[in-house]
Amino acid sequence: MTSETRAGFVALIGEPNAGKSTLLNRMVGAKVSIVTHKVQTTRARIRGVCMEGQSQIVFVDTPGLFRPRRRLDRAMVAAAWGGAADADIIVLLVEAHRGLTEGVQAIIDNLKDKIPSAATVALAVNKIDKVKAETLLALTAKLNEAFAFSKTFLISAERGYGVDDLREWLAAEIPAGPWFYPEDQIADLPMRMIAAEMTREKLTLRLHEELPYQLTVETEKWEDRPDGSTRIDQVVYVARDGHKGIVLGAKGETIKAIGQQARAEIATFLDRPVHLFLTVKVRPNWLEEAERYSEMGLDFKDGD
């Protein structure tokens, strides 16, 4: 490997639903981060690895920054700022149609307090297809008055507009040095966790009205079989007995449908046949258990 190689960490920060997971997945070219229409779905600091020429960009997809109310919320926000502070470059995503909201202003204020002044912070105005050009110009001017961004990008993570420009700029800006990961590795999360996130996404999409955040999924067993298939046993933890009935559905129809969708997606991701077995268990205090937090890549103490 020659000395021209570059490698660095890039933290994507922003309000919930700003499009961080969509951008990460587009940059990496594979689905490594859960994408739903529900806010606050990204819990762990998922790292996606993107190769651009001789540069290896490692994305830290932080949970959306919001006002925390519960222990889990506080741990997620602490993880987000921890990921930002450790990164070589920070990219703040702002939704074009929502503009400089109170939440964005709070993030900018925190950037001034929590991030060294010498840090490279770029602005990416996302979902630009939702607003007119003059609105965009006014918004970018306003945001750059509020904070001295190193560079501003106008993008649509969903459609791909402007994403190549952002990726090329990041590739040139990260530090020179050896790569952190093998060239073909796209995420540093264990496969067990990625598989659990995929199942949780299907649960969130199906049950977002009834159970927005009161469940988690863990992969209990993982067996690669001689025939080339993989057996995966996962547990869906819910906080109350009533929640168990909602997840199972009448005659188990809901959990069966969710299991089929998750199995298909995990099989595509692993590129092999998958046998997925889901069990639903009630754990009234799972939101207060340190073990559940470490499973999600969060620090239990950050919730204090």
Written overview of the protein:
By secondary structure, the protein is an alpha/beta fold. The protein folds into two domains: 6-173, Rossmann fold (3-Layer(aba) Sandwich), CATH 3.40.50; 191-303, K homology (KH) domain (GMP Synthetase, Chain A, domain 3), CATH 3.30.300. Helix content is 37%, strand content 23%. It is built from nine helices and nine strands. The chain has helices at 20-28, 71-86, 102-114, 133-146, 163-173, 191-207, 241-248, 253-270, 290-295; strands spanning 6-14, 46-52, 55-61, 89-95, 120-126, 151-154, 215-224, 230-238, 274-282. α6 runs antiparallel to α8. It is globular and about 55 Å long.
How would the blueprint of this fold be written?
Elements: E1 6-14, H1 20-28, E2 46-52, E3 55-61, H2 71-86, E4 89-95, H3 102-114, E5 120-126, H4 133-146, E6 151-154, H5 163-173, H6 191-207, E7 215-224, E8 230-238, H7 241-248, H8 253-270, E9 274-282, H9 290-295
Relevant terms:
9 strands; Rossmann fold; alpha/beta; GTPase Era; 3-stranded mixed sheet; 304 residues; 2 domains; G_ERA_dom; 6-stranded mixed sheet; GMP Synthetase, Chain A, domain 3; ribosome biogenesis; globular; 37% helix
Q: Determine the fraction of residues in helical runs and give it as a percent range.
A: 25-40%
Give the overall shape: globular
- Low-confidence spans: 34-44
CATH superfamily of the largest domain: P-loop containing nucleotide triphosphate hydrolases
**Pairing-aware structural class of the strands and helices?**
alpha/beta
The figure for the number of domains is: 2
Report the top-level CATH class of the largest domain: Alpha Beta
Largest β-sheet summary:
6 strands, mixed
Q: In oligomeric terms, what are we looking at?
A: single chain
Please write the string of helix (H) and strand (E) elements: EHEEHEHEHEHHEEHHEH
Number of helices: 9
The CATH topology of the largest domain: Rossmann fold
Q: Calculate Rg over CA atoms.
A: 20 Å
Order of strands in the sheet with most strands: 2-3-1-4-5-6
Total strands: the figure is 9
Average pLDDT taken over every residue: 82
